[in-house]
Amino acid sequence: MADLNGDDEREEELSSITAIYPELVVDPSNPFSASIDIPVAPSTPLAVLFPPAIDTLTQIPLDTHRLEHLPPLQLHIILPNGYPSECPPHLEIKTTPSWLPAETLERLIKEGHNLWEEYGRGQVVFAYIDFLQNEAEASFELITPQNEELEIPQEMKIELLDFDIKMKRKKFEAETFDCGVCLEPKKGSVCYRLMKCGHVFCVPCLQDFYNNCISEGDVASVRCIDPDCGKENGRRRKKSGTLNPSELLQIPLDKEVVKRYVELKRKKKLESDKSTIYCPRKWCQGPARSKKYPKVTDPFSMEAFESDSEDESAPVPPNTNDTKPNPANIERLAICEDCNFAFCRVCLASWHGDYVRCWPRSEAEISADEKASFDYIRLHTSPCPTCSSPCQKTHGCNHMNCFQCHTHFCYLCSSWLDPSNPYQHFNKKEIGCYMRLWELEEGDEGVGNGRFNGARGWEAAIAAAEEADANAPQENEEVGALQQAMNNAGIQDRPPAPAAVQRAHRRPVGPPDANAPGIRRFVELAMNDEEDDWDSDELGSDDEDWEIPMMPQVPRRI
Amino acid sequence: MQAGSGKRITKELGEIQSDPPEGMKVTLKDDSDLHTWQIVMDGPEQSVYAGGHFKLILVLPKDYPFKPPVVNFQTKIYHPNISNDGKGSMCLGMLRTDEWKPPNKIVAVLNMTRNLLIEPNPDDAVESSIAEVYKNDYKSFEKTAKEWTKKYAVGK
């Protein structure tokens, strides 16, 4: 503070500038020193690349970010002794983080000195601030036809993007919007701009509307409220699409509501997909687990919804595997996502393993050819008791060895045979196959239909009963005809359900007493795929009839 | 919304009453009920309904503006898009629940209704027989519409 005249001139300059730029702060300890932040908001957003710090061999495509706001220029001016007539102002410029290239900073400072010369070594601070503002608006000429993007080191990426978002938000909050729903002018701070289309509504209206839609189950309406939104391009209307759960949380909507939204959307998709299989248990009827629509574990993750927009723009071509009436065996396994019941998607019975031949429950689902081969297999093959593979004998005795699982079994009744002594089955008087080891020696096609027991016998009985019913409709009740045909066919064995067949070798010969209340109840429950609280132990004394002693009595649920 | 709903309706009513759409008189049916509006719509000059005064009731559902208003013609009218069952209901365009968007306003509904009198939309008709006549035998349509207007919508 040597020269009094100079003092006045320099102080005067700075104080007059604070009148124009109130954000100019004069250093309290030095009246000739001042700083100002000059915002950088280029008129055209600055295209920025963030190349990775380390050169990687793999070419990762870099995305260009267009930043509307960048951290400000921090200008520090010191007016030295002898300014303005003898000395130029002392200028310091920096940015935090230092995104502006050093050579640009140098150029800007040099320009300051040039300006001082141009002004005939006069007061130049105002002109210089003005110059920097213009430079900032023009992105400091960083973008040239040769250089369309500014490269900024990777480590500043988050900070810069963050700054850009914050400034946009600040700008948005300062604005006023007319909410199209409540028709009130609202401050940006209580408004929300929809991500996809940019339409703005006030938060309470959006909350009310979307909560209402979701509670009513009308998830398709959870999209932009604007009447013309998405209509500009005619057909592209669908693209504006429903909102992401993450966006709903941002508005914000309650977590519970968003969860319901995600679940409803998935449910709608499952329901509209014809290939969806539902659990055959009547009390459950949940959808089978599906890769296409995985069960939502985290409703707030974006991934669950990523496929959503694609679905809406281009419907996924139906998966032929899913819609084929008879998928390969390995694809038949379905597991209910609600009760975890494993079942076959074709026959809807509980899962029977890969090698079992099964057919749709409804005849409408199979073609005439398939029906014919199904009937053929049903009536002209004997199933293996272990794996149910259909077998047909071309010649030889009735002791069979399954080609699939090597189980020994009886061709006549599909009973499991003890591999160490398979022939005793044909030597027991009380068994229907007594002395019949060599029946049908030429194969069953050659000699005609033999007397079959077990699964094959039942199929024959059912076929005969159906025929009888067809010939004499209404006369006999179906059950009556069936019973009759079974008697005719000399059937004395169990029903042909694969599970029953598998266990056939353990069961005593002779029909179970169907009138025993426990068994009847069991059958009823089984038909409905239900469970109850009964233990098998309560079913009565039929355990005693078993040939193989039971393991220590572990209470078992049916 | 329920709280804001009344505010919006009051605002819309104020706007409509201070600057009523062409050829319409809008009042509340009962001053204590903001949700039921009564409109008298003049048959547009260029239409077959010219000279008639049609009474409409516009009911705003409780969750307006999230659900569309319901418009009924109380005056009998011969029109393919207005039901001829004593209810005079209309259900097309923005009045459909799935088409309605909350920023739509009542004034837009009224203008749409008026435009519908000028130009019926036989492809989206509730009265298909009237739509057939309109499409195939316009003269006969015109005649009946004018008769009905005279009979039901004049001098009341």
From TrEMBL, chain A:
Alphabetized UniProt keyword annotations: Metal-binding, Repeat, Transferase, Ubl conjugation pathway, Zinc, Zinc-finger
Its EC number(s): 2.3.2.31
Pfam families reported in the protein's UniProt record: IBR, IBR_1, RWD
Biased composition (Acidic residues): 527-547
One of the record's GO molecular function terms: ubiquitin protein ligase activity
Pathway: Protein modification; protein ubiquitination
Catalytic activity: [E2 ubiquitin-conjugating enzyme]-S-ubiquitinyl-L-cysteine + [acceptor protein]-L-lysine = [E2 ubiquitin-conjugating enzyme]-L-cysteine + [acceptor protein]-N(6)-ubiquitinyl-L-lysine
SMART domains to which the protein is assigned, alphabetical: IBR, RWD
Domain RWD: 12-139
Domain RING-type: 175-437, 179-213
Region described as Disordered: 304-324, 494-558
Listed PANTHER family: RBR FAMILY RING FINGER AND IBR DOMAIN-CONTAINING
Protein name as it appears in the record: RBR-type E3 ubiquitin transferase
Species: Rhizodiscina lignyota
From TrEMBL, chain B:
Gene Ontology terms for molecular function: ATP binding; ubiquitin conjugating enzyme activity
Top-rank taxon: Eukaryota
Keywords: ATP-binding, Nucleotide-binding, Transferase, Ubl conjugation pathway
EC identifiers of the protein: 2.3.2.23
Residue ranges of domain UBC core in the record: 4-154
Stored Gene3D superfamilies: Ubiquitin Conjugating Enzyme (3.10.110.10)
Leading EC class: transferase
Region (Disordered): 1-24
PANTHER family the UniProt entry points to: UBIQUITIN-CONJUGATING ENZYME E2
Official protein name in the record: E2 ubiquitin-conjugating enzyme
Organism annotation: Rhizodiscina lignyota
